[in-house]
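subagent[fold] <- orchestrator: predict structure for attached chain, return tokens only, no commentary.
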Amino acid sequence: MNSMLVKKLCLLLCVFFTLSSSAQWYDPQKVNTKLGYKYGEAINEARVKNYTRAMQLLDECIAADTKFVDAYLSKAGVFSEQKKYKQAVEFYRKATELDSVYCVTFLLPISIAYAGNGNFEDALAAINRFLQKPNLNERTIKSADYRKRCYQFAIDYKKTVPATYVFSPQNLGDSINSKQLEYFPSATIDGNTLVFTRRIGHEDFFISEKRNGAWSKAEPLPGNLNTEENEGAQTISQDGRMLIFTGCNMEDGEGSCDLYVSYLTKNGWGERINMGRIINTEYWESQPSLAPDKRTLYFAARDPSGFGGSDLFVSYLQPNGQWGTPRNMGPEVNTSADESCPFIHPDNQTFYFTSNGHPGYGGTDLYFMRKKDDGSWEKPQNLGYPVNTIDDEGSLMIAGDGKTAYYASDGNDSRGGLDLYSFELPEHARPYKTLWVKGNVFDAKTKQGLPSAVELINLASAQTISKVQTDEEGNYLITLPTGKDYAFNVNRRGYLFYSENFSLKTSGSDTTYTINIPLIPIEVNASVVLKNVFFDVNKAELKPESMIELDKVVQLMKDNPTLKIEINGHTDNVGKPADNLTLSNNRSKAVINYFLYKGVAAERLSSKGFGETKPVAENTNEQGRAKNRRTELKVVAK
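subagent[fold] -> orchestrator:
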């Protein structure tokens, strides 16, 4: 083989590997000249990603010379380029078996193939051997050290992911995916509406509905939101009535990419509205995620005052209906590299994002963190292998069931580049399974819908999980994470508040709720049951969980300074009537004493016990008896 050809082949090969001049017996300059030309053609084909033709030529080279080490190495390299790491490892091993000394130079890409196949111990051994090689340049050492840290992390962290977990992504099929790129999935709480971004030269929104368990053919989002510019990276509200998205290079934009909002109307999606200079800047804002109560907005932005790269920010809806100044989520979340793709689950307590700055497997990994009772966040955790790999992961969304995840991937069965896939999330990274309650709030007398505040509170921690505002017609939807017990309250000035209790701490229920709520105007003799006032059996001491609802009553009294109320206690018919009467009297007095402790004037309060004399349900079963055991608030004077 002449020297000019050798130089050309070496230059081409450097696209995939760094060649070594050291060898034991194999010498690339002694390869047959004609075979060398064919090998050079294979490398050229690989450079332009014509992998099928490249593989065909490399196979011909190996068939002609079974000891053609570079052909084995290059075939392994092509497999790695296609992320077919299992096959890559096979051919790297064949090359190493032929000449291990010559292959020392290739131990960096060999280690990457091992890691891509999940063999992190072999990958670490290979990279350690590579780093012992003399005369490595600074750039190569830096790259190898980075890989070494990733492999060591994988070995240590892999122990936290159950070995029984099976990662098996399922392509969402031809109804969703196409030859174009699909990414950034978002869905409503019922799982029946999927909105995603598709690149068709520019980025547009597409929508699909689940019917009889199957996705309908995705169509462009109805309305005028799609333009010839780039619209994408969207978040749809859990009730499907609000869309916040990224628009780039728009005439009304503040910077390169801004956040916009649109609302679903009777005639389809309304016009886009720029979220304004509080949210948008001259820089890049993108990838929004809206909390289920529509009061918290997370997004990614490139702000020079941040930690570097893209950071994650949060903004809170203010009492005046405007979004507050975004806050950087801080050094626990953001690094000097890139954090992006935020996603807050419908449980409003579990947060996911991508990062290439936190310790991980390499490239961009997926992370999650949970909200503490005080509202702060726990330290982010890596989702673990095999969800995270040595390649880039991102664009994650998790359904309300807490286990079905959707993401974009260029898997082997993709219709073209990035497709949308679903998979079952490993248990350690799952959010709370989340149900929902929806309905209409209306005036009990006029039957007219009432804009009202709907609140869900964790009874154990007193933490507000979600607080939503109904629409102008009184319609609402609020998510119900399982695993905890909740107080549910509906408030509007001039009305007695409505309360409900959801006991989901131990329930494995799949029940969703529709509750239409008649709010009762504050007037004499109006009454409401306080469903979150609790006592132990046959006792009159208030349980701590009761304070949440009783404090609502205290606030009601403050908002209505002339209001006078009576607290009435009721029991079921279990036990002696006289004992039940005494118990109901003592329980109503315990409630009054709490109000006195909170500063409500004694002349505004009275109490009465009725024992078992005024049942509202049959006492023949536990469900009926539970309804009869109740504490009522009655308006005495307005």
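orchestrator: received. Logging for downstream: Residues 577-597 form the longest helix (21 residues). Confidence is low (pLDDT under 50) at residues 1-23.
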